[in-house]
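Let's see one such:

===
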Amino acid sequence: MAKGDSLENMSRENVGLYLAKGTKEYQTKMRDVYVDNLDMSGLKKPLGFIDWADGVVGKDRKYLDDENQKLRERNGFLENETKTDLLTQIGNRKQLAEHYESAMARFKRNGEPFSVMMIDIDHFKNYNDTHGHAAGDATLYQFAQSLKKNIRNGIDSICRYGGEEFAAIFPGVAEYDAVAIGEHMRKAVENMNIDLGNGLQSKITFSSGINSFIKKGDSFDKSFKRADSALYRAKNDGRNRIVCYESE
């Protein structure tokens, strides 16, 4: 603005645009320059315009801050959705992989051990054929929630691996304790009554394989493949049991 210009002769819209330009420091500097050159008889009204314009700028900033916060919350929600299995409402394989990398990083950093577990519902194909897919979906949800309820909250991870297969990570846990957690989960499922609606209930069990022989640098696929081989043995040995991977 030229030295001879007057805020009093500018429209409110132009004053707002003018004062919104640049940083707060710029606005303060220009305000001081203007006040230094004011005819004192006109002081009250121009300063009123300045206060009004500051108010407009402040409201705009608050609006933008509020919108940015909403956007951050929405992005966080969408990010969480990409890591959640929609049917069972527990983590999916993407989340499992992230938790595995975190556990491996702690293992490399301070030697903290961890174990992984593969879980498969026994005879689930026959179960689906008998009760129907809607009942199968209801069973998967209740099964997943039981697993989630019976791990260490905020420490362990339980995720749906695919179909009727689930997987878990137990940070800071070697084989003996991993089996103890697994047995707690297995017994809870064995004693659970699955609600199929219309007064109908059913029972299920699961088989599991645990791998605690994880070396620094072992990949996600390698660690869970070993747990899966132990799971295969659990099925062959009669199901409804936990078998541990034996180091080669």
